[in-house]
Amino acid sequence: MARMAGRRTLSAAPVLLAVTFGVFAVAELSPFDPVKAYAGTAGLTATQQELDQLRANLGADLPLIGRWWDWLTSAVTGDLGTSTVFRGPVSDVISERLGWSVLLAGTAFALAVLLGTALGVLAARRPGSLPDRALSAGAYTLEAAPAFWLGLLAVWFFSVRLGVLPAGGLTDPGTDTVTADQVLRHLALPALVLGLSQLPWFFLYVRQGVTDALAQDPVRGARARGLSERTVLLGHALRSGLLPVLTLIGSRVPELITGALLVETVFSWPGIAAATVEAATSVDFSLLAALTVLATAAVLAGNLLSDLLYGLADPRVGFDG
Q1: Each residue of 31-46: pLDDT tens digit?
Q2: Between 147-154 and 243-266, two packed helices, what is the crossing angle to 10 degrees?
Q3: What secondary structure does DSSP assign to 89-129, as a single string?
Q4: How many angstroms separate the CA atoms of 121 and 115, rounded?
Q5: Are 127 and 210 in contact, with CB atoms under 8 Å apart?
Q6: Which residues make beta-bridge pairs with 168?
Q7: pTM for the whole structure
Q8: Which residues neighbour 73 within 8 Å (Cβ) at sequence distance 6 or greater?
Q9: Which residues, in sequence order, are bridge partners of residue 315?
Q10: What is the distance between the alpha carbons of residues 116 and 121, in angstroms, rounded to a whole number?
Q11: DSSP 3-state assignment of 74?
Q12: 71 with 286: CB under 8 angstroms?
């Protein structure tokens, strides 16, 4: 495991370098001017000399390679630059929002895995039955539904029509103190929407895996020995059917990040994804580069985690990848 993790970590370095360079290359080709975006309305009345001075202060007058190399050498020492949209160090912007994004994504992912597994086992017990057809139809419907549409629908139903849950934000309007009760109430809707957007894949994988396992000889042998249906289903079929789900964990990380970006925007959740939108719309390339590296690292870590879990669950696979 240690050798595999070490090899993956070494191979991740050139990937991250290429990603950071790609961000600055896109910035070079972008028609947006970061200096005018930083100046805002003041840039409309500023002289060209003032704009040139501001460009020099921001380092925007350097060539592509120079800007990328300056950012990279500073990032290695922990200095990720200054965010032009948040008017502060990029590291502070990320540290203030990372915890809220992890809370949202972790809660949603746990909900998707647990609920998807339970419903997948329920559907696999009797393939072709009414519960199986109804759950499968619901999963395919959710799979096709965009996360932002689910978010708007949830706001309309739970916040506007029923009035039981807040429509967005982290705390109630006019409240300065962040309490656990308020966070949980405001977390409920975005976590539910993000979890439902990820649920179909776990449901379908578990359903197919358990259905295939129930048809295998070891499971039929367990039934022939007189074991209870609960023991056969949970102790044999589910254990075998969950193996493909472990590989799904890593592959769902990019979709989870994309879904979080949309959900945080819809619900005004103060996380990393919402900061990514503001960085992109305000041409804040220092912040955008750091957030892109963070997202890439999360994807690579998710793929490594799924391979490690699969190797632990099935010793025949090993850790040679």
Answers
A1: 666 666 666 666 566 6
A2: 60
A3: EHHHHHHHHHHHHHHHHHHHHHHHHHHHHHHHHHHHHSTTS
A4: 10
A5: no
A6: none
A7: 0.77
A8: none
A9: none
A10: 9
A11: helix
A12: yes
User: Half-sphere exposure of residue 88, counting CA atoms within 13 Å on the CB side?
Assistant: 8
Give the C-alpha separation, 81 to 68, whole Å. Answer: 11
Query: Can you list the domains of the chain with their CATH numbers?
Result: 2-89 (no CATH), 91-313 (1.10.3720.10)
Query: Does position 253 have pLDDT exceeding 80, yes or no?
Result: no
% of the chain beyond a pLDDT of 70: 80
Nearest to 111 by CA among 230, 256, 209: 256
Token pair in block for residue 43: 């840039």
Q: Helix or strand or coil: residue 32?
A: coil
User: Looking at the chain, which runs of residues are DSSP E strands?
Assistant: 82-83, 88-89
Q: Which amino acid would we find at residue 277?
A: V
pLDDT (tens digit, 9 = 90+) per residue, 222-239? 667 766 767 777 766 777
> How far is residue 121's CA from residue 210's CA, in Å, rounded to a whole number?
7
